Structure formats: structure tokens, C-alpha cells
Amino acid sequence: MQFTKEYFIQEFKKRLNEGYAVDIKQASNFELYQTLASIVRSGYNNAWHQNIKNNAREGNKQAYYFSIEFLPGRLLQSNLLNMGWYDTVISGLKDLDIDFYEVTEIEKDMALGNGGLGRLAAAFMDALASSGLPGNGNGIRYKYGLFKQKIVDGYQVELPNEWLNQGNSWEVRRDSKAVDIHINATEVSLLEKDGHLVPVYHGGKVIRAVPYDVGVVGFQNGCVNNLRLWDAEIPESEEVNYRTLDERRKIEDLTSILYPDDSTSEGRRLRLLQEYFFVSAGIQSILKHHKKAGHNLNKLADYVAIHINDTHPVLCIPELMRLLLDEEHYGWDEAWEITTQVMSYTNHTLMAEAMEKWPIHYIQELQPRIYQIICEIERRYVESLEKRGQAELIPSTRIIADNQIRMVSLAIIGSHSVNGVAKLHTELMKSQVLNDFYRLFPERFNNKTNGITERRWLQIANRELSKVLDKTIGKTWRYAADDLEMLLKYQDDEKVLKEINHAKYQNKVRLAEHVKKSNGLKISPDAIFDVQIKRLHEYKRQLLNLLRIIKLYQDLKENPNLDIQPRVFIFGAKAAPGYHEAKVIIKCINEVGNLINNDQTIQDKLKVVFIEDYSVSLAELIIPAADVSEQISTATKEASGTSNMKLMLNGALTVATLDGANIEIKDQVGDDNIFIFGLTKDEVTAHNQTQDYCAWDYYNNIPVIKRVLDALIDGSIPNIQVEGRHVFDLLTRFNDQFFVLADFEGYLAIQEQVDQAYRKPLAWAKMSLINIAKGGHFSADKTVQRYAKEIWHIKPVVEKDEAKYDSYQ
Ligand code: CJB
């Protein structure tokens, strides 16, 4: 049946009455939201079901993306858009006198991730379905999502984010697909059974993993994939082994928190258990499915590709080996062949401290059989290098060293593909950090530059600009992001440029209204909106931005008539709860903001806004309103970045170091349409090699640096006695690990160029237009299509066919 407005209205009224026994006028936004979500779900359930059946019937090879984080944000609008129902629903609700956008605000963000890594995983889910590719997610259904951030007296305070309190409209619990996982055995012995030696676990306990599936709706193609998130429960048969509340709570804890406190050994063990839990559950369920479809496990790689997103799911490798060896009785060589054909791995960071290493005894305690298998992988690996005459590469690449398991080594040794997430990142992987592996397995290494979903970031988040695009270049860009390039023809068209500026202005007004409500601060949409939104990390250098703000403030105090473009500095950032330095920086940003925002003498030329509780939904509000995008990490440190792509797509101009995907953005838009500064990767590498960097020299010899740094400790910024000193020490006594001072003058100079450029609205709009036009280059659809073709070898199973979601029951 055709999904018409009349049909929708009738169905909406009916379901609202059935579900809540209320009239529209009395219904709460929550009731309206639930009713709407139920209609949307019914609209894609059939396609979802058919998709699962088709894949099984046709024996389509499927990819399984294993990730400890998924950060989809809200799903109502994107599902509606992808189903092609968006306009019909908005118009229907309008007839019912319901404000659609107000209703969407009720939905809690699905925030099962910290930042870029989790958001990328969610973007890939959307892009896979939208490309008609059979690709599924496998992760954890955390009871508490990423913590809720409050700013109290300038400090970050973390509160639990109980996102499931009112249920999750998009999930379906699938009891029949539950699997059991044995952990904490004290001993493994071998027993003969049916002619095979079978390991028997002594001691320990069994946990039940219950999947909650979320349908991932493709863009107007009828393809609905599966995001499977696992919850931990106590199996009935095991109840007696969990007698105390404490023992029961341990199982609840397993899937409670996204990132357990890793400053304690208990927290670290819990994290490892989480990793094994979702890996084992996922692999067991894949094998079950494969066998149920009647396929032979020898042919697993013809039907299944398993992707290891960063090192957190690396236990996939020994777990698949375990199941093939112990349950399916394969010999080692065959099992290893199958495993390496199936597994592929993405590296997302080269920061040494982020490379997971687990103490041997943690893994032994968790699952002694897994430890045995890792030891055997290691033994055979070392032996193979000795045989190949490459024994010199053993120490740097082996899996077990210093009583620790190096997860990166296990990932690379056990996978057929290893990729980085931007050209520079992959080059650094190959030439520096993982060079010894590259020498051993050059054919495994490849690059897959990250991507973003234009649908969410442009079509949904930036309706003003979308309208301008529709009017100017037609609507094909909504289906094929590369068509945004058609905009280039209009780069000198004054009318179009003015419309782009006007759309931006409207988005700025919207953000300003939010800031008034959330921060009680009035900001002018005429000022430059200068945005830095990302996790708070020293290498991302929010501090560099802050030092410049202090410098501008000092200049204005000296000369209140200084001719600068008014600027609003907008930050959104969460610090890891245990990352002290990052929290200190948040405090400093907020106190500098307090000082500046309350100083009448600078005539509103500067404002500093820290938007608390940064999230995907807030990003949807902030990004369309940004004029300037701050991508200022120390070269070599940011693997890729993805906010850089979202911001350019929305017409913000990028101030960037030559790091991560900034380089590819520059290659796309050209040197004239981006503001580049700072040390290059070679300069950073040279400093690191020669250890010649001396931060004190910058402090002592460059007056502007001395003046700014002194402000941190001389009381001129109130309320940061401790934190200001801490930051001062980081930048001087601890020798400024991220070269903030080395890049400071270059940063000031480039920002001066930004200031000048903003004075010419049409020239600015032209640069903005070029960025928008080139934004399609970073479509996640294209990225996953490359993964599909070059790594997973999966093919589209659904072609574009808008009618499919219209078969509404
Ligand atoms: N990244 O968000 C995370 N978490 C990690 O633990 C490691 C890396 C980020 O991944 C993004 C997606 O690939 C990258 O764009 C970003 O540069 C990286 O920091």
C-alpha cells in the first residue's frame, strides 16, 4: 500500500489511541514520539525480515563489523529520510498541529561510543545499508551510554547517561539467538570424545549473551541490515552459581558502562571481559548461522568477512580458532587458514598509549584456553620468522612480550588486511610505527580514508543549505554526493553565494538561540562562529586555540578599538573521566570564557562558549552554523578526523595542520580554500628523533608567548590558580609534548588571514561553496564500497528501489 499522508494521519491517530488512550491534544511529546516510531518500525520490518531471508537463501557473503563502540545518535529522522517518508510525515503532523522537530527532541541519543571511532562505525552501518551491501554490526548494548557531561563551576562533572530508561524504540530482543559464554575457568583439560580430544573447562562460570537487534535502514533502497548489540544475563541453569547480589551485579556490570575506569585493575579486567564477551557472542552466532544455512565451515570465507574495528575486538582471532579447533575439530593449519581469510583489521591511532596491551595473567584468568591459543599463534609465528631468516623482526612484532599480549601484533598476524584511516596515517603506519610488520606483510597494508554520511550531516542537519542546493543544482546530490560538485559552476554567481551566506546565517541564529538557553549567553550571528568540537585531548590542541583567545583578549584590553572581526569561539568536548590534563584544560576554557564573556570593555568582540554534553545531536546543531573549523592537531597525531569532513561539507572553512584527513581536504579544495599552518610531519618526526625541542626557548625568547603563558599563572584569569599552573607546566617544564608553542605564531598568522578573509562576504562564500562542493568526496558510502570491494569481497544485494518501503502493511 502506498504510504500517503492520509494513510499516515489515520494510522497515527489509531496507534496513539491504541497505545496510550489519549487524544492528540492531550498526548505528551513522548507519546507522540513512540507512536511515530512504531509506525516507522512497521514500515521497515518487512524489508528487514526479507533481507535476512534473502541473504540466507542466496548465500550472500556478509560483512560483520565488530566494534566496541557504535554512536548512531538519534534514528527517527534518519530512518524517515531513508525510507522516503520524511516530507509526508512532517506534512501529516503539521495537519495534526504537531511540531515534528519538537517531537524528535524526545529521542535519546544512542551514544554507545566516545567519539570518532564509534561515530565512524555508525556511519558505516548507514552507508552499508544505503549501498545495498550486506554488512552488519556487532557490539555491546551498554546500559549507560557515554557519560552525561555537566559543567559545574567550570569543571567537568560526569553523570550516568540512562538512555534506556524509557526503552529503545529501535531494538528487538532476540531470545532465540542467545548464546552462552564460558569465562574464568581455572583449568582446561583434554578429554577424549568421539575420537577427538576436547578441552573441558573446570571452574568458572557461564554468562548468557542475549542480542538486541537494531534495523539499519538503507537510503531509499529497501535494504535493512542488522546492528546486533549484546546484553549479558545469567542463564537459568546457572542461577545457583550467582547467589549473592554482588555476584549478580558483576554480570549486570559487564554491559553497564561504555568505558570502565581503567585506572584500577578491576576496571581494566572488566574492559577485557567486555571485549571477550561481545567477540565470543558475535562469532558464535555467525558460526551458528553459517551452519544452519547448511554451509561447510571450510568455506566460511566465502560467506563471512569479520572486521576488527581497532584492537578492542582482536580476541576474534583466537576465539574463532578456539571454536574451529575445539568445537569443529579442525586441525591447526586449516583453522588458521580459515581465520586469516575471514579477518581484517583497521588501525585508528598510532598513539603508543592507545595501543592495547593486556597482562598475560588477565587473559589467563579470563579464558585459559584463549591464552593457550594465543601462545600457539605466537610460537608458530616466531618459528616462521626464524625459518624465513627474519629473526631480527621477532622482538618488535611478536605477540607476547614483557608479560603482555600486544593486541596490534595479534591483529596484524591474524588478518589478511590491515588498513589505516587516511593517507598520511597509512603512510606513517607503513613507514614508522608498524614498519617492521609492513616489511613482513606488505600486501596486507592498505588505506581506506574515513567518510561521513552526507544524509545526516547535510540533508537532515542543514535543511537551509539543502534547499539552496536543491534549487541550484537539482536533487541528485541527495542520492550521489559527488553531484555536489555541480555547485562549482556557481562559484561566481552572486545570487547563489548570497543564498549560501543566508543559509549559514539562519543556522547561526538557531545555534545562538540554543546558546542563550543552555549557557545564558547572548552571541551575535554576525560574529565569526569559530568551532572546535571533538574529544578533549592534548594532541587535538584545544589549548592552542585557548592560548590564542587569551592573546586576543590581551590585545583588546590594551587597545579596545582594535580592529578585529567579532568572534565566538565554540567548544564542545568531553574529557575521559580519568584524564586529568584534559579536565584541567576544560576548566581553563570555562574560566577564560567567564572572564571574557563578562567583560563589557571589549564590546562583545570576543565570546567563548563551552557547550556542555557534546553529542551527535548537538553536532547536528553546531556544524551547520560553523564558519571556521578548527582542525589543529599536532601533525602525525590525528589518524584522520571526521568532524573536519562534516564541517567542510557544511561550508565552514578549515584552519588546519597538515595532519590526518586535513591533507586530503586540502587536496580537494585547493590551497586557496583552506588555511594551513604548523609543523609538518617531517618536522615533528625530526624533533622527536633529535629531541632538540626546547619549549622554554619559546617562552623566553618570544614575548607574545611569554605574555600569554604568564596570564595563566599571574592571577589575571580568576579561578585557575591550580589549573593555570598545571597548564603552564605542561607547556614549559614538561616540554610541551604536542608542540603547541612551536605552532603558536603560525597559528596567529593564519588566523589573521581568516579575520581578513571574513571581511569579504562574497569571497568567503565562494570559498565556502568550494568546500561544500568538494564535501561529497568524503562520503562514507564510497568508503564502505571500497572496503566491500577490496577487503571484504561482498557485493550489493539490493539495488536502489524507492518503492520498497512503501509496501506498508
Ligand atoms: N579514534 O575515536 C577514536 N578512538 C580511539 O580509540 C582511536 C581512534 C579516532 O578514530 C577516528 C575514526 O577513524 C579518527 O578519525 C580519529 O582521528 C581517531 O582519533
UniProtKB/TrEMBL annotation:
Key words of the record: Allosteric enzyme, Carbohydrate metabolism, Glycosyltransferase, Pyridoxal phosphate, Transferase
NCBIfam families associated with the record: P_ylase
GO cellular component: cytoplasm
Transferase keyword on record: yes
Organism: Ligilactobacillus ceti DSM 22408
InterPro entries xrefs: Glycg_phsphrylas, Glyco_trans_35, Pyridoxal_P_attach_site
Cofactor: pyridoxal 5'-phosphate
One matching Pfam family: Phosphorylase
Residue positions where N6-(pyridoxal phosphate)lysine is found in the record: 646
Superkingdom to which the source organism belongs: Bacteria
BP GO annotations: glycogen catabolic process
Catalytic activity: [(1->4)-alpha-D-glucosyl](n) + phosphate = [(1->4)-alpha-D-glucosyl](n-1) + alpha-D-glucose 1-phosphate
UniProt similarity note: Belongs to the glycogen phosphorylase family.
The protein, known as: Alpha-1,4 glucan phosphorylase
Gene Ontology MF, one: pyridoxal phosphate binding
Function noted in UniProt: Phosphorylase is an important allosteric enzyme in carbohydrate metabolism. Enzymes from different sources differ in their regulatory mechanisms and in their natural substrates. However, all known phosphorylases share catalytic and structural properties.
EC number: 2.4.1.1
